[in-house]
Amino acid sequence: QVQLVESGGGLVQPGGSLRLSCAASGFTFSNYALNWYRQAPGKEREFVARISSNGVLINYLETVKGRFTITRDNAENTVSLQMNSLKPEDTAVYYCAAARRWGDVPNYWGQGTQVTVSS
To answer: pLDDT band at residue 107, thresholds of 50, 70 and 90?
Structure first.
């Protein structure tokens, strides 16, 4: 069955860094665009970053540009999100999601990993 399993969340101080990873199985990973979304308490889920199936196209939420970097490894079926210069407003549950086409609503979602930025 399809699985997307996130890891790497935790508690970090403002200005710190975290690296989230997502391991995928059960579908042809290299055919899918991979996304990171997040949902903060009391807010709607929002798009954070997206990378195309071949890694050529990348898009970010404006407020994370220059701080977050999305990468993928099609040989290992993994996608990562390097998060630097973290701010308290980055606190959220972060979700990995796979979409068959760039920009489409994702077909598959992970269970999420908590990121808390606090002093």
So the answer is: very high
